[in-house]
Amino acid sequence: MWIKQQTENKKKVETVSGAPLPRFVKKFLLHKKIVKAELEISALGIFHIEINGKEIPEYFMPGYTNYHKFVNLCTYDVTDMLDKENIIAVTVGDGWFAGRIGYTTTRCVFGEEVCLYATLKISYENGEKEEICTDGSWRVYPCEIRYADFFNGEYIDERLRVDYRANYDSLPFAVEAFENRNFHPYDMEAVVCVDKLLPQITRKHNSLLLDFGQNFAGVISFKVKGKSGLKVVVRHAEMLACDGNLYVENLRSARCTDTLILSDAEVCFSPKFTYHGFRYAEILVQNGRIDEVEISEIVGLVLSQNMRRTGYFECSDKIVNKVYENAYWGQVGNFISVPTDCPQRDERLGWTGDAQIFCDSAMYNADCKKFYQSYMDVLRGDCLENGSVPSFAPFFCEIDESNHGAPCWGDAVIIIPYMHYLAYGDKSILEENFAVGKRWIEFYQANLVDGKVENLPTFGDWLSVKETTDEGVMKQCYYGYSLFLFAKICEILGEDSSSYLQAHEQAKRAFWKYYVDDKNRVKSDTQTAYLVAYVAGFMSAEEIKKNLLQTIHRQEDTLTTGFIGVRFLLPVLSEIGETELAYKLMRETKYPSWGYSVLNGATTIWERWNGYTQEEGFFNPSMNSFNHYSLGSCVYWLYAYVLGIKRRGKGSFLISPDFSNQLDYAKGRYDWDGGEVRVEWRYEADEICLTVGVLGDADVVYDFGDRAVLRKEERDGEQVFYLSK
User: What is the mean pLDDT of residues 441-445?
Assistant: First the structure.
């Protein structure tokens, strides 16, 4: 049974961030010895569990879904948490269900009142079973958390804290909530604290300025004691303004402020129902002086999906290493229930375009198998019968031409499953998403005129600089790219691929007819235009090489690509024999480049190449995130081309590094369920020394191109190749 708090005013509008959070409490006795106890639990909202005063250290459960379609049901083994006398307390926050989400100021998008569902299944030693379910016998009261919102923060008044153990019998009863929701088993890692960061602290006039040295997603925890009624406020920001104060303009309408009203007792402040994207923070006493409170044990709690890290990369270039590290931190900060675009401003959406361009990088960095399966479950449920795919998922808006059916974004329903298969070798994700992928192709085809994609909206090569790629080129090429990949999916699943290969040839002819001139130049003549034409299979290496190089050279060997093009820039250069240019672009530090952001203090990937420039300062704050993983898709090239670890399914690899004397060495590894592949190469006097170690039952093929194998050794179970330069 779903239960809720009895409220006179159903719509939670007491503040812009919601009403006090309900805490549901159940006391019960166990008279017999138990062998197992499992708690099945869900919420319309997000929950935090305490059993006998012990927390389950997870955040924002049961995760973000389209609540109109399904709600996750979580299961916990709580056997070791139970005693003879027990009390369960579950606090429920608005979360994505009733709080602010997306880029609007609207609350209660999915519903108005948070609710709880729980069943404690107990198995006794004597074979008996018992269930304790949420019903009208549970107690509920408005707790000390007066509101909690992802964008605005958490507000706690310690003066209002109730001892629910001592006052249990006087607490009001919960009431039944008449909800009919489809449950989906929660089947991925939970959001937890994955790291802790200590700040550098600077005392200002009436505040403490904290610098954690790293942009991350999470909250600040600290102990504090002071006179009852003092208001301790914590503000967060990614950057500092030129005057040394927090730069908060790019947060837009998100307040990103946590507040604590003190009682006389010392408390540990550690928000559970919000998170922020920040490097810097300020702690101040709003109605007093900072020296009136005692603050200790300040720590930044890094929150992310608890996925096992599987990839590591290092080379002789410190700039490249920092770019790699920044991309990894961008992934950590944005993998919270769904792959979000950013963790700081009023948005934090699971954009499909961002997700598809970064997914193969992400799947090198960490074990994302369950994470992307879950995301595809949500995305698949939000697709329309006509095949249209939303531009973000979960989807909660009115459907219009800008947020549904956009090429390059909607193609995620084909690209993510295919890349997932290459990483993990599991056909089930291809099978589960086959129908929605097929309908997406048909959606394209319903919008063809003479073989050319028409009418559909697109975001194009989002946030490119200096050059703008024709939207028609982007749409046509991504249609071809999806046809190419879907034909491969058909072959893997034993389905007939012929119609998709034929459609690909027709799309290619239309591309040449409408978008290529008589000198074999793509009419928009940008870096991205040639890159997407190549990966779509519309133009060969020979056909794009001259013109692609010209587009790069006329920009003084800097990139112009946005979100879409940047994913293909370095791999395509390697594929067409321009490895040295790929390395040059990767190592570049003048604007625009990855290295430019590093030189300007970046600790995560920026949303924009020009998020900050020395000449112009901060870009327009209306859209300027400093933690956005999308442009970090270059990580794929570092693994697959620099290290040369190319995945072909679970435990199957092609080892084929692209060597360059622009680096003295490169090394790294990739772990999978069954083992590990390690690669290290170094330039020595007259040769390249390549060491490859393989743990587990792996199918490994080597390809060194034109480089001769001068000699080969086996050393400590590793293969050592000495190659010609």
Answer: 98
